[in-house]
Write a structure and sequence with these properties.
By secondary structure, the protein is α/β, with parallel strands linked by helices. It contains twelve helices and 22 strands.
Length: 422
């Protein structure tokens, strides 16, 4: 009989970032229940406090007292956003709209991540920038009078879309964002919760007439499906174990991992599914699964599970056949070059893998005998967490170059993994 354990994983990082930012420019106070307190989100919190926003912090909640659009002050110092690309790209839209001057920087990893994808549309909207050659941080931003825009993005990126929509809150002119594939829609959902008029037609998002944000309500942040994914794969690979993960975000633009589970034949069940603040959530029950089948992740699926690809590469090791990922070139521009990080580390363990420009093939074997090795995380939290799951689920004897990077997204991860493993 399986050993069953229950857990609420770390709260959703994407929703926490957006809740803090939009509450800061809303009229009225907003209570954020169960926010994620990680290095990334605390950087966002410190940034808005540095622009004059009053924040109360409790054991498992925040209350942010917004005074409406146009209320932010010019920060007195450079804003250091650590490793958070979400914070940098989204705050740029708000700072541009607020009309203040700010300089945004981050750690060495963040300084290597592409920012031209937001600089180009926001410049067209009237925001002035100075930046390093090639469009890299630090970014010096001077907001101004915001123009409307009808923007067709070359990539499906929630961060690009959100930066444009945030800046678009500060103009009465038409603001439209078109994407080749629908990216995650937390910004659209949260803008609705704040009372902003917004319409969605397929892959096109348009701001409506009312663009003021109103507070005086509560936001319940669901558990992060990207964090839950590690324990979902842990349960699928661990003999005689089942895991119930509570309050997991089940937004249709984020639940691509469940499509992969369907392809691989993973045993799972969704319970108590519901909607709060326009976001779908529920409990996910996953059990150990024999006879895993290979899966294929293609371009149209990638936006719905891009953060889960590292942990799904661990699942692929034990699938009976070749699992493949294609159309995921943007993985090379994350905290590390994740395609390279995954392939190099799997090869160290003795897994047959072929690397491509936009993905990889993993030759799985249900009885794979892996070699001991030292895993290089490249200071990437998702690489570190993925290989810790492999070690815990299969008892493989290997070491990791570091685990400190995990603090950026999931400070309690190792404690939670030890609890489920015990």
């Amino acid at each position: 009989m399986d050993k069953v354990k229950s857990l609420r994983v770390a709260s959703d990082k994407s929703i926490t970032h957006r809740a803090i930012m939009l509450s800061s420019i809303a009229k009225g106070s907003v209570r954020i229940n169960s926010p994620l307190f990680s290095d990334d989100t605390l950087r966002t919190l410190k940034a808005v406090e540095g622009m004059g926003v009053r924040v109360e912090s409790g054991g498992n909640f925040l209350v942010i007292h917004g005074e409406g659009k146009g209320s932010l002050n010019e920060p007195s110092d450079v804003i250091n956003l650590g490793n958070s690309g979400t914070a940098m790209r989204l705050l740029t839209g708000i700072i541009g709209g607020e009309g203040v001057f700010a300089v945004l920087t981050g750690d060495e990893s963040l300084k290597k991540r592409p920012m031209m994808r937001i600089i180009e549309p926001l410049s067209r909207m009237g925001v002035d920038f100075l930046y390093r050659s090639g469009g890299y941080a630090p970014l010096a931003i001077k907001g101004g009078n915001i123009n409307g825009i009808d923007y067709t993005s070359r990539i499906a990126s929630a961060q690009v879309k959100s930066a444009i929509l945030f800046a678009g809150l500060y103009t009465d002119e038409e603001v439209i964002v078109r994407e080749p594939i629908k990216s995650r829609d937390h910004t659209e959902n949260m803008l609705k919760a704040f009372g902003v008029d917004i319409s969605i037609n397929g892959n096109t998002v348009t701001l409506g007439k009312n663009r003021d944000l109103f507070g005086d309500f509560e936001i319940n942040v669901p558990a992060d499906i990207s964090s839950a994914a590690f324990f979902m794969v842990f349960a699928a690979l661990s003999k005689n174990r089942s895991v119930l993960l509570r309050d997991v975000l089940l937004n249709p633009t984020r639940r691509g991992i469940l499509d992969v589970f369907d392809m691989a034949g993973v045993s799972y069940e969704i319970k108590n599914e519901r909607v709060e603040n326009y976001e779908r959530m529920g409990n996910v029950f996953v059990s150990y699964t024999r006879n895993l089948k290979p899966f294929k992740i293609t371009g149209d699926m990638v936006p719905r599970l891009i953060d889960e690809i590292p942990i799904l590469s661990i699942l692929a090791i034990f699938c009976d056949g070749v699992s493949s990922v294609r159309g995921a070139k943007d993985l090379r521009k994350k905290e590390s070059d994740r395609i390279k990080s995954i392939c190099e580390n799997l090869k160290k363990l003795g897994v047959k893998v072929f690397e491509y420009d936009d993905g990889f093939d993993i030759y799985g074997n249900p009885t794979a005998a892996l070699k001991p090795a030292t895993i290089e995380t490249y200071y990437d939290h998702r690489i570190a967490m993925s290989f810790l799951v492999l070690k815990a689920a299969k008892g493989i004897d290997f070491s990791l170059s570091e685990t400190h990077s995990i603090l950026t997204s999931y400070p309690n991860f190792i404690d939670h993994l030890n609890y489920l493993s015990g």
